[in-house]
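Dock nicotinamide-adenine-dinucleotide; give full complex structure.
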Amino acid sequence: MNTKVALVTGAAAGIGRAVALRFARDGMAVGVLDINLDGAQAVVSEIQAKGGTAVALAASIGDRAQVVAAVSKLRETLGPIAVLVNNAGITGYARFQDLTDEAWDRVMAINLKGSFIVTQVVLPDMEAARWGRIVNISSSSAQTGAETMAHYSASKGGIIALTKTLARELGPLGITVNNIPPGMIMNTIMSEATVDRFPIPKEELVKTIPVRRTGEPDDIAGACAWLVAEESSYVTGQTIGINGGRIVS
Ligand SMILES: NC(=O)c1ccc[n+]([C@@H]2O[C@H](COP(=O)([O-])OP(=O)(O)OC[C@H]3O[C@@H](n4cnc5c(N)ncnc54)[C@H](O)[C@@H]3O)[C@@H](O)[C@H]2O)c1
């Protein structure tokens, strides 16, 4: 079996790191893309220490020239890209009345436009192979709304809509596109920075989650592994909530 090449954005930390490690464990060669090159390099070393194949790629997903350079490096080093996880994202908090144009534009430029840019740059490989798997990481905040996160939740809602449209456009080409809205995934930089914003203590919050625990990055990695597998070829355009049952649909 040929080794598949996967690109995971925001893979220096948190959920992206867990996805990159899981894909490498499953036998994929992984492009570990992040704005934080040292962190990406550390994940690559971790993968290589376990016998896997990976390359670190420095880019901001919001910068097309940087993405083109990083994707070219991945193609030259490991080959054409078959699997993409658009995971990199940033957050921010402001009462809607206080939200500035700059904060709005920054979150949109990374979360929504960044996913557009990376997908468009990677796509020719999947089109040529007539096979591809794209997983977009959205957010449960797009499903429920989230106070003080209008820009973030709107950007993630955009990712859900983008997923649905791409599933329609790319399905005939053998490419599936799904999104995962994570909910309460701890042990990431983003979630640890958010804990003190919880409206109630974490122990109380856990009681509102049907499975009575918060999530871990590996919970998302497991769902990604399934969505990018051959056996998931009949799954596209879907929103697969990974949230312990806190949001049911
Ligand atoms: N943790 C959660 O509970 C949760 C919930 C909902 C959605 N999400 C989403 O999951 C994704 C991962 O979140 P996380 O909690 O692991 O966050 P994290 O902050 O731990 O990791 C994000 C990674 O993305 C990188 N990054 C940021 N901006 C970038 C850019 N412009 N270009 C390239 N890389 C960039 C960071 O350097 C970091 O390594 C994000 O899209 C986030 O919105 C997380």
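Observed: The chain is about 45% helix and 15% strand.
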